[in-house]
Amino acid sequence: MKKTKILVAEDDEMTISLLSFRLRKEGYEVIAVTDGKAALEKINTEEPDLIITDIMMPHVTGLEIIDYVQKKIAKKIPVIILSGAGQEDTVMEAFNLGADEFITKPLRPDELLQKIKDVMG
Amino acid sequence: MKNALHILVIEDDEVDQLMVSRSLKTAGWQAQVSFAANAEDGFKELSQKTFDCIFLDYRLPDEDGLSLLKKFRQMDDRTPIIVITSHGDENVAAQALKNGASDYIPKSLWSPEGLSQSLRSAIRVRNNQELREATEKALLQSEFRLSEAQRIGHIGNWEKDMVGDDMYWSDEAFRILGLAPQSMEPTLRDYTGFVHPDDYEKVKRQLNQAMADGNSYSLDHRIVLPDKTVKYVNIQCRPEKDAEGRVIKYLGVIQDITERKKIENDLAHAKKMAEQSVRIKEEFMANMSHEIRTPLNAIIGFSDLLAETDLYDRQQTFVNNIRTSGKSLLTIINDILDLSKLEAGKLRFEEIPFKLSQVIQEVIAMFQVDVDQKGVGLRSVIDEEIPETIVGDPVRLKQILMNLTSNAVKFTEEGLIKVSAKLAALDTDQLSLEFKVEDSGIGIPQEKLGTIFDSFTQANNDTTRKYGGTGLGLTIVRKLVEQQEGSIRVSSKPGKRTTFTFSIPFLRSKQQPEKELVVDPQIPEFEIAGTRVLVVEDNSMNQILAKNRLLQWDCEVDIAGNGKKGVEMLQQNAYDIVLMDVHMPEMDGYEATDFIRSQLEPPLSQIPIIAMTASASAKDARQARAAGMNDYIAKPFNPHRLYNIIAEHTQGRGATESAEEEAAPESDPQYQFINLSFLKDATLGDRNMLVQLIEAFIDNCKEYLATVVQGVSEKNWDAVYAATHKIKPNVSMAGVKVMEEQIALVDERSRYKKDLDTIPGLISSFKEIYGKVYEELKQELNFLRHEKD
To answer: CA nearest B587 in A: which residue?
Structure first.
């Protein structure tokens, strides 16, 4: 079976390293980018099965990524957002734009892996 | 020569006339020769017939040949004319040729061969000229057609070769650019001068790219005409290449697409407006729901309280009427909102384990009093083969069953109402249940069965008058069933019975239902008297309602009017639990919870906080959890649920607390400041990864310090907030408790711009602690690297 391909967009080096490490361990194919603009490019070139994105990122924000995926990509790609504490308003906005799940930082890998399973059905 | 030539000879001397015809015959020409003896006759002949050639004597009795020749040419007659001259007429001959004669023959040099040669060449010249004229005419016509096509289609064409800056523009290209056709010799620079300043970069980029890759392109951009009008044009460009593939020329068209763009813009605008109006409608519905429900909750809540005081019988009846009306109004509003959500496809269905028997029992219990009063029986039958716990949306299932049962109760005056569930299909993961709600009521006329599920339709208008209701109930039921991929049908015998049958697929459960999903156990298991409750709520009606309800259960109650006040009171007095409204001025419930959880010391920071939300959606629940709240309750609160929530979170507390303490030790025994247990767990024993993360943490801290020190010196608090917010999770991951506290304060204060004068102090103490943290991290890195080798 083809590996599930996950695009991870997060500008914090520590978070993205840990995240990619755990996802790869779990058998996922990971494409890691540290800014939103790169994320948009990879969405088109790599056609990921799932997107995990931070909200606050340089150039293009996580919200813009969700919006882009909803409006410009024909295929339904689930999106999990990473948010800091105290960003509930933004999380709500993300849900309204079509995000499927969210997880707060600091990242708890087990929780995230569970949510990925939930989202991917 | 197949066809005979028609020759006119204008000559007064009969001898010379004969000489011409004889010479033609001798030279082998088949010719019909006409003669004219003077200029007047010659002119007459020519105006009546067409000739292939004219022989014209220069000396005529009435007029000289030259002036006759001029006349012919003025008439636009192009018949070749060979002038016959006498000796010493060389001047005349030259004049004749200048005025359009094909040739001249001096009489003295007359010979059949000479005549023949002159004639042949004159005819050839004439034929060539005719051919050229026809070609030119065709060309002109096709140019005219092309130009008309360009004018009609507003498409001009242009060319640009690789040498120099010059271009060719067609007439229409000029017109599109607002210029008179061919009014100048255009260059590429002239064209770029028309490009709208905002589109200039785009056009330049495209031009450069075409130069670089030699590909065709199509580009829309705006131009500004000399009179400042802005137009949209589409440019298509195709390079022409030589045999070696080098671009030698660009060919293209320019099309005026202003009209099309205008329509596109209008459409986009109309679409935006439509979307906006849908959104406004949705927001309006949401706001209205809040605005209506808040006072309504107060009405219902106060009449509940009032009904429990000592009242005269009549007063009791009045209060009951208020309650009943309030509740039915609430039902109607909820119906309308549900329907609008269902129609917008916005309702999300839960997939959670629940006990079917419990849902059905609750529905039965809800109508028991009504049916007892009417003397109608109400029974439930559940197929024993149905697994006890199934996975689906219990709240929506209950809503469907309640709606159908409530109808049955409404329309049944005697006999029996039966609610049943049967196992329709079962496989390893899924099962399908068939539910029936049967009654022995008035029934539905046959002709109404088809429309019974449509909005605002009841069996007849009398029904509405007699039995009330919005007529939305069955529409909602059908949508709830269908959106869960189920189906529903109805059968009825008027005056005898009605049966609603629906089936919904569920998932099979692998676990027991979670505690919170058991809907309202009827009997409170715990005593909550004496519990100290802090209610944080800005609406005074809701304050009083909550307070009265809690006082009834002998709780101690304090009220705080907003989140900020709530946090203050929490620090001043001792409480067991906080009920927190989520939407408040000053500091809302989420912020207040965040503050309590992150800023206060344990055990205060661990106090149970229950969110009071406007609705009971899964989203509200998630949001409350995300903010660190323990549970949520939707307003208006069901007293039983409120009681149980308080009982559950105040009495079960000791156990969870100690469990949490065991799970997360305060610090790494090895180190004073850092606690790497989280990172060690998360990296699953991979030392390389751990090293990498620690190094990243060190880099991030350095970068953070540099950024905030600069931000503070420039008083750029947004930059300080952004950096702090970003480093916050890192500090938590590295388990540096002391730093976490400082970071949280800097985060909060830079975000809300308060107590800003404390920030430099916090940062310098962060810096100081980081020095020690760095020592410990270095020690750990040494250890890890050493271990690796």
So the answer is: A86
